[in-house]
Amino acid sequence: EIRLLILEPGAHEDALKCQLVNAELSWRTRFEALSYAWGDDTTKYQLECSGHHIGVRANLHDALLDLRHPTRKRVLWIDALCINQADNDEKSKQIRLMHEIYSQAQEVLIYLGK
């Protein structure tokens, strides 16, 4: 089982909103995987996700703003958000699935930053 992030549509200047949903890789759900440089961890932005506020690094915040579609949702797998980084057991299991996750992604997006 993995988590996928549903990025809500909006204009570039709108606050980012998303939902995290569980999915099985066997379901062949269509999603895009994002690979990006995590960057400096001192700058945090707030992301509203499934009714909670999550701190994200500046580079991920910029990537989400640039990737957000103005009129339709976008389904993404992003390691920093789809893996519980505070749970070492989950992180270990999910890291072992990363090859399969990237292989099953409809597209793999690479974000190098601004």
Automatic annotation (TrEMBL):
<dbReference type="Pfam" id="PF06985">
    <property type="entry name" value="HET"/>
</dbReference>
<dbReference type="InterPro" id="IPR010730">
    <property type="entry name" value="HET"/>
</dbReference>
<dbReference type="InterPro" id="IPR052895">
    <property type="entry name" value="HetReg/Transcr_Mod"/>
</dbReference>
<protein>
    <recommendedName>
        <fullName>Heterokaryon incompatibility domain-containing protein</fullName>
    </recommendedName>
</protein>
<feature type="domain" description="Heterokaryon incompatibility">
    <location>
        <begin position="31"/>
        <end position="113"/>
    </location>
</feature>
